[in-house]
Amino acid sequence: MIVIMINLSKMEKWVVIFTLFMAFLSQIDSYETYPFKNQSLLLINCGIEGSEDWEYYEGWDWAPDIGYINTGIAKYIQPQPNINVPGYLNSLRYFPHGVKNCYKVFPDPKYKFLFRAGFYYGNYDGLSRPPTFDLLLDGGFWATVNSSESEHGPIYKEILYSPKGESTSICLVMTHDNEAPFISSLVMAFVFVDDGAKPVYKLMGNNTALHLVSRTFFGGLDKVISAWTWETCDEYTFRIWQPKSVPGYLNISYNVGNENINGCLGFNYENRPPDSLLKNAISAANVSDSISLQVDFGNNTQRNAYFVLYFMDYNLSSENQNVSRKFEIYIDGESKKIVELNGDEVGQVATLYPVEVTGIANLRISPVNGSDFPPILNGMEVYTASEIVDTGGGFKLRCSCETVLFSFLVVLSILFV
């Protein structure tokens, strides 16, 4: 082979060089081709055709995924009767070729981020065979997607994560033959900047990822927490809060206007909960009663969980200085924290981590002697935690790229000796 190359004409040598150079370029994930650096918010409507086709849904602009991925096939979904699907899930991108296909995004490294991938099968391929596949985040396992669960509506996979390099990859991995992965939407939203006094997921280390199990607000019945504005002071970081009615407990609502407080109520508390969450709660009926709830972690594998519980009783304000709600939090019978709400401190956020759980965890909030009122609960977030291996992030050459580059340099040296 070397002899043949040496005997090539000058023009033929340049053809060989050009061919090898193009092979080298094709193997590089060149981040410079993406102009979207240091983003704090990105809403991607997967599968929209055309780089200029931004869509407007629920008060926000959703971008097409052109520029974040260059593989896969875009597809629109026919509306399904009796299934309410947000407009940004009416298209998708599916990946019949290759085992792994990846999006590249560029989060601002000074934030923690919420990543949420949305999936709605909608029988887009006419096969009535929803696939199962895996999601990876920066090469680490994120979740398994069983899209048959989207038969009655979209499903979401969400994670809180501190990006390590100048880019983050979200990969869809084929795990079963003839089951092409797909994705309908992708959200990347910053989760504030820690300022010490009001920390954000304060026990979440930089090498910890939090996988969402549930995010619930109580007492608001079927109320939907809207996107944030200065008028509503509701959800600011694109967290989805599911309203939950709990039979056997009282639903409490507080008529608190923003004019009565210094700015948004939630900004005074850890994780900046939406004001609607803090203005609604469930309460035990009697001062001697407990609140008991279960959290299903899906299987009997032991893991570390991250609990965040939100408490507020705005009625315990200045006119009620001498009374309090005092209660103790138990998980699977083990005491975790005592909380007291009174006129000086009408709200608290309790973060519990690490909590070892297996299967179904039993949460109990019980009154402490001397409490004037029964236990209360406004909202709760539950995650499982995983540790991230820091690979350093940034630009990397794949093995195949290194091989092509080495071959290119060797041939170049031979051709021009």
Oligomer: single chain
Radius of gyration, in angstroms, nearest whole number? 26 Å
Structural class from helices and strands? mainly beta
Strand content: 35-45%
Q: Main beta sheet: strand number and arrangement?
A: 11 strands, mixed
The top-level CATH class of the largest domain is Mainly Beta
- Write down the secondary-structure element order: HHEEEEEEEEEEEEEEEEHEEEEEEEEEH
Low-confidence stretches: 1-6, 22-35, 391-408
CATH topology of the largest domain: Jelly Rolls
Total helical segments = 4
Shape: elongated
Q: How many angstroms separate the termini?
A: 15 Å
How would you state the average pLDDT, rounded?
Answer: 82
The CATH architecture of the largest domain would be: Sandwich
CATH superfamily of the largest domain: Galactose-binding lectin
Q: What is the count of β-strands? A: 25
Number of domains: 3
Helicity range of the residues? 10-25%
